[in-house]
Amino acid sequence: MAARIHGGAATALSTFNPKKLVAPSRTNLPAARSSKRCIVAGGGSDASKKSLSVRHSQKLIANAAVATKAETSATTGTGHELLLFEALQEGLEEEMDRDPHVCVMGEDVGHYGGSYKVTKGLADKFGDLRVLDTPICENAFTGMGIGAAMTGLRPVIEGMNMGFLLLAFNQISNNCGMLHYTSGGQFTIPVVIRGPGGVGRQLGAEHSQRLESYFQSIPGIQMVACSTPYNAKGLMKAAIRSENPVILFEHVLLYNLKEKIPDEEYICNLEEAEMVRPGEHITILTYSRMRYHVMQAAKTLVNKGYDPEVIDIRSLKPFDLYTIGNSVKKTHRVLIVEECMRTGGIGASLTAAINENFHDYLDAPVMCLSSQDVPTPYAGTLEEWTVVQPAQIVTAVEQLCQ
Amino acid sequence: MAQHLKSSSKSILLNILRHNIGFSSPSHASRHLRHNLPHGPLSTRLAPNLITRYCNTMVDTLSSIGSHEDTNSQVMDFPGGKLAFTPEIHFISESNEERVPCYRVLDDNGQQLTNSRFIPVSKEIAVKMYSDMVTLQMMDNIFYEAQRQGRLSFYATAFGEEAINIASAAALSPDDVIFPQYREPGVLLWRGFTLQEFANQCFGNKSDYGKGRQMPVHYGSNKLNYFTVSATIATQLPNAVGAAYSLKMDEKDACAVTFFGDGGSSEGDFHAALNFAAVMEAPVLFICRNNGWAISTPTSDQFRSDGVVVKGRAYGIRSIRVDGNDALAMYSAVHEAREMAIREHRPILIEALTYRVGHHSTSDDSTRYRSADEIEWWNKARNPLSRFRTWVESNGWWSDEAESDLRSKIKKEMLEAIRVAEKTEKPNLNHMFSDVYDVPPLNLREQELLVRQAIKSHPQDYPSDVPL
């Protein structure tokens, strides 16, 4: 049922009746519960509800030439199979074809093709000026991208590893996030900052960082995390077309995921979460690589008789509280599975947001499974234990559903 | 999935090796070794209509061998190019014997030096330059006083640096994009920003283009190609390089110009930006206002090199040192630099020596770390306005009468501008939340509602002059 909200064409959304959404499964609630409180992030008036769905439909209409899909596997049978890094490259190449202002800058992105081959072949096709190899200074080339964006280009800035972007924090926070605001709207900064992050296979502490937790407070930026070839290409294209600065988080271990994606052009909504598996018993919120650990745990859970609803939140800033809220109102139990550290991670913010907005709908406290507050060790066995494993997810669900 | 990763990382490695077969060394620097490429220069291997960057690397054109003809045994060959060897242990000295000389056209008293070379300036330009320098000085004076009276929260003056401000602006075209630090309002003034517009920004009223979001003196105007001042030091330098790169890609007849102080040259962004500009061959002018002080830090505590001009060579950038208090010298230097930058696609570093006559800002009292006599001397004896005025008058283009007319006109305009700006409404509350993104997302709309609710229930705790 939830899939219908996010998939489908613009017309479906505009005739969508929010009241029909709530599943009549709350038999233990007092009957006096008002029927008006049925959707969207809490506290909002009817006006804000309407404007959100209007905004959603406006966004869909604006890109109506493309078909939006909720399912990740191809339903039509046509389409082509590729790996996630190739999907990113395809999205980037299509946008560079479509708009001559799109350019790429970063270390080794040109003739080397990028450390993870996302920009492979682009320098040969578009020339050195549009696919720019820079010297090693993240703050400088991020600053350069921002200056170029203010003058009309649409740079895609690649950090070889998200951890290196800590050096670019000054430019991202002070200039990228703020200048549209402090200039009174006179200058826009339509940059995309992307790169691989997350815990890899024994890459060491410095190369296994989760920067989404550090960046999430910066006002003025948007953050999205891709997890499948389908949404990687869609989010890349949407991020490039957005007028806001967008940080696109990729994961080092997901670059070789294979999937069949549509041949026709499509983009994904930057602020929307993805329904991976609808269910009734518990809402599991996750993103990036942990999605796969959750789905693995889901197999075990289904065998044990549970029906988890798995949502890939995708949009890390702002959260898609619309989708998340609807799910919480249905299942009344939330488990967040993330790779961030326990302190100050995305899970921490999400827990706060859910508690604030949907407290009345919860039957149990929100549980959050995250990495420990330690630097990621190099030893393989230790590293495995810093990342949430499917067995832990199964245990947590069983605990929550008692 | 682990198997997937292993096999593809192997194939990635194979790709790297395949890519490098034919190069004598696998490093990326091999791209620059023209004579080592068996397949010819990179530019001809790509489609001819694509612009490539590697056409003229300085390293290749440096003469490195001298008179030795018998090269094979006499020359060292490393990534980066061939060079001669020396059997002597010789350390390059930390500084030249003599400091880099400073270009100037007028002497201390405003008389043209007999052998000076400079770009002639027409009467209109010269009179506008001098008038704008006077306007800038008076504007600074009056806003500073307004801050002292409590009418403005903050201000930073540009006393002593009027020549740098105005003369550089005069030498540029309106299409050149400016990335200021915060002591260059004169460039905006030259381009047509009115005193009223300056006042609006300082008072943060609803006519401010920044919608009241920034401190005073953080001006910005997209139509005058002057990028909004960001308070962080030297972060505008890499931004300028990016803008220059964008101008080069669009093949525009314009360059990027960025200003910073002696203190700003210590920031990492300065070094990175210069390096990047040189490698990218970006048409950008780096103008350093070396005014001797970074708040209370004198230049002797800021760097140990011969000023900022010598740092250009370290990055392969053409540089010049100019007397920043000499309007004609500044004009000529910036004019020449601009031509070179655009025509040859190269960055230029200009160190303009000057003195910061005023305090760092209204939050500073500079008599605590320097003598009042020193400030007074620079203000009177080495004043850029009086030097230029002498030269303009010597051409018969200015007079005492013109001076007093101008000053009274500006004073009247300034007081009127302040009066109007003070009375103008502040920006609406919704501007606190607009422009964070292109469309305010749900969380910001919620937060605005919360603020409005709070104001409604406790109106006495909130400023009454902010329209809701």
UniProtKB/TrEMBL annotation, chain A:
It catalyses: N(6)-[(R)-lipoyl]-L-lysyl-[protein] + pyruvate + H(+) = N(6)-[(R)-S(8)-acetyldihydrolipoyl]-L-lysyl-[protein] + CO2. Pfam families: Transket_pyr, Transketolase_C. SMART domains: Transket_pyr. Residues 82-257 form the Transketolase-like pyrimidine-binding domain. Its EC number is 1.2.4.1. GO terms for cellular component: chloroplast. Its main location: plastid. The pyruvate dehydrogenase complex catalyzes the overall conversion of pyruvate to acetyl-CoA and CO(2). It contains multiple copies of three enzymatic components: pyruvate dehydrogenase (E1), dihydrolipoamide acetyltransferase (E2) and lipoamide dehydrogenase (E3). NCBIfam families: PRK09212.1. Tetramer of 2 alpha and 2 beta subunits. This is pyruvate dehydrogenase (acetyl-transferring). It comes from Brassica campestris (Field mustard).
TrEMBL record, chain B:
One of its GO terms (cellular component) is mitochondrial matrix. GO terms for biological process: branched-chain amino acid catabolic process. It catalyses: N(6)-[(R)-lipoyl]-L-lysyl-[protein] + 3-methyl-2-oxobutanoate + H(+) = N(6)-[(R)-S(8)-2-methylpropanoyldihydrolipoyl]-L-lysyl-[protein] + CO2. It comes from the Eukaryota. One of its GO terms (molecular function) is metal ion binding. Gene3D superfamilies: 3.40.50.970. InterPro entries: Alpha-ketoacid_DH_E1_comp, DH_E1, THDP-binding. Its cofactor is thiamine diphosphate. Its EC number is 1.2.4.4. CDD domains: TPP_E1_PDC_ADC_BCADC. Residues 133-428 form the Dehydrogenase E1 component domain. It holds the Pfam family E1_dh. Its main location: mitochondrion. Keywords: Metal-binding, Mitochondrion, Oxidoreductase, Potassium, Transit peptide. It is found in: Mitochondrion matrix. PANTHER family: 2-OXOISOVALERATE DEHYDROGENASE SUBUNIT ALPHA 2, MITOCHONDRIAL, 2-OXOISOVALERATE DEHYDROGENASE SUBUNIT ALPHA, MITOCHONDRIAL. Belongs to the BCKDHA family. Heterotetramer of alpha and beta chains. This is 3-methyl-2-oxobutanoate dehydrogenase (2-methylpropanoyl-transferring). The lineage of its organism: Eukaryota, Viridiplantae, Streptophyta, Embryophyta, Tracheophyta.
